[in-house]
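To: structure subgroup
Subject: Chain for Friday's discussion

All,

I'm putting the inputs and outputs inline so they're searchable in the archive.
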Amino acid sequence: MELNSTYNTVCSLLGAALFGRVPEIANETDWNAVYSEMKAQTVQGLAAGIFPELPIPEEIKKTWQKESLYLFAKGNRLCFAQAELTDLLEKAGVPYVILKGTSAAMYYPEPLLRVMGDVDIFVPAQFFDAAAELMNENGYMQQRNEEDNKRHVAYKKQGILFELHHSFAMVNSTEEKQYLDRLLENCCLQGKTETVEQNGQRFQAPPVLVNGMVLLEHIAQHMISGLGLRQIVDWMMFADKVLDDSAWQLFREMAANAGLETLARTVTRMCCIYFGLEGNFSWCNDADRHLCDELMSYLFDNGNFGRKQGHAGRIATVRTHYKTTENLFSTLQRTGEHNWKLYQKYRFLKPFAGIYQLFRYSWQMLTVPKKLGSIISGKNEAQRRQNMMAGLGITCDY
C-alpha cells in the first residue's frame, strides 16, 4: 500500500525519533497536516527530540513545541500522582501493577516522549475492595457512570483520571480473557512484578512478557473504537527491546492462549514495513501482507480513540461492535447502564437499560446529517472492519 505524503512523513518522523534515523522529508510537505495527524494519533510529543533537524515553518514549530512542553509537564505530573497512589497501596500491603502508561514508556528512548492519558492500575480481585476503600479515604473521587463497569472503577484526583482494575482483558472468548487476567493476578500474588525507576519515581510493572501481553491486548481493545498510532508505537518499542526470535518462542504460547498470536505477527510485520523496525523478527515474516496494509489504512482512517471518525465512521463502530460481540444482550445492557441518565437516578429501571441502548443507537444512525450516505458508508466500513478483525482472529464482548 502506498501512503500519501503526510502519512509517509509521519512514519519517517516516528522512525527518526524512535530509532535515531535521519528523517526523509519531501520538499512539498504540508507541516500543518503532519502536525494535525500526529496530534490525532496522540504521538505529537515524539518529534520533540528531532525538531532541530526538521524544516518546519517557525509558526507551526512554536505551536508544536508549546504542545510538546505541555505534554511533558502533564506526564511529569501524572508520574507524581501515580507515585502518591502506589505509595498508599504499598504501605497498605496491596499488590498491584501499572498497566500501559509508564509501563509502556520504559521501552521508549525517553519515557516522557510517550504521551500520557490516565493511570491504569491492576490489583488482584481479593484486594480490590481494600484498594477502593483506600482511594475513597484519600481524596480520590469516584466517577459517576463507572460503578457498573465490570473491569474497573474510575476515580479522579487533582484533574487526573485513575482506573482501578480487577480485570483487564476484553477481547476473544471468556477462557482467553481469563488467561490474561490470571497472568496479571499471579504476578501480583507471587511477587513476580518488575520494579521500575522512571522520572524519579518507582513503581511495579508486570513482568516483561506479561507487559507485552497487556500492550497487545490494548491494541485489540481499540480495534472497534478507534486504533491509533500510540498503541502501535507502545507495542513496537516493546518488540524492539524484547521480542527477538528467542523471546518469541516464550511469548508465542502466551499470545496463542489469549487468542492474540495472529495480531502479534501482523502488527510487528506492519511496523517492519512502514516504520523501519529492524531486528531479529523472522517469526513475523509470514504475516499476511494484505492484512498489514489493511491495518495501516485503518490506523490513519481513525486516529487514537477514533478521533478522525466522521458520522459514517461512528455508524461503522456501532455496527462492528454488535456484529463481533459474543454476547449482544449483555453488551447492550452494560452500555445502556453507562449511557442512560435516567437509570443513574432511578435504579429500578435497570432491566430496561438494554432496550434504551438499542433505541439510542438506532436513533443516532437515523438522524445524522446526510443520513442515507452515512448509513451506506458506515455499513461498508463496518464490513471492512469485520473482515479485518476476522483475519486477525479477534472477537469482542464489550
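Points worth raising on Friday:
Confidence is low (pLDDT under 50) at residues 372-376.
The domain at 5-306 is CATH 3.30.460.40 (Beta Polymerase; domain 2).

D.
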